[in-house]
């Protein structure tokens, strides 16, 4: 689900389907930022590991609660990942 609000693109990660079971949230973040850029994930110049440790991100979200949040900048976007697997992608100020 994608909702545009001014310069912000909010994308909610849906509950895992059978094909998504066990997919790391870090992969989903890359997909969502790529979608905001209208590109394929492998076309992004930046790599997620340059912004945040993908394994640590996956562990924090998997072991967190709905109140857990992780915020970081990636490929010109401010990314917020919540413990309920919601990802918010917004244009980063000044980028």
Could you explain how this protein is built, in words?
The structure is a single chain. By secondary structure, this protein is α+β, with helices and mostly antiparallel strands. The protein has 2 helices and 5 strands. The protein has a 5-stranded antiparallel beta sheet with strand order 1-2-5-4-3, with helices on one face. The relative contact order is 0.21.
Report a brief summary of the structure:
With 95 residues, the chain is of the alpha+beta class. It has two helices and five strands; from the N terminus they run ββααβββ.
Keywords:
single chain; 95 residues; alpha+beta; 5-stranded antiparallel beta sheet; 2 helices; 5 strands; globular
Shape: globular
Q: What separation lies between the terminal Cα atoms?
A: 25 Å
Number of strands: 5
Largest sheet: 5 strands, antiparallel
Strand order, largest beta sheet = 1-2-5-4-3
| Content of β-strand | 25-35%
Name the average pLDDT: 81
The number of helices is 2
Helix content percent band: 10-25%
Secondary-structure-based class equals: alpha+beta
| Rounded Rg | 13 Å
* Low-confidence blocks of residues: 1-5, 13-19
N-to-C series of helices and strands: EEHHEEE
Write the layout of secondary structure elements.
Layout: E1 2-5, E2 8-12, H1 25-36, H2 54-63, E3 69-74, E4 77-82, E5 86-91
Antiparallel strand pairs: 1-2, 2-5, 3-4, 4-5
């Amino acid at each position: 689900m994608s909702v545009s609000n001014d310069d912000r693109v909010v994308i909610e990660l849906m509950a895992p389907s059978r094909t998504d079971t066990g997919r790391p949230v870090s992969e989903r973040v890359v997909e969502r930022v790529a979608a905001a850029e209208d590109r394929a994930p492998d076309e992004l110049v930046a790599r997620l590991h340059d912004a945040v440790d993908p394994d640590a991100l996956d562990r924090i979200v998997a072991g967190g609660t709905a109140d857990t949040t992780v915020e970081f900048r990636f490929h010109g976007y401010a990314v917020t990942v919540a413990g309920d697997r919601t990802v918010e992608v917004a244009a980063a100020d000044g980028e």
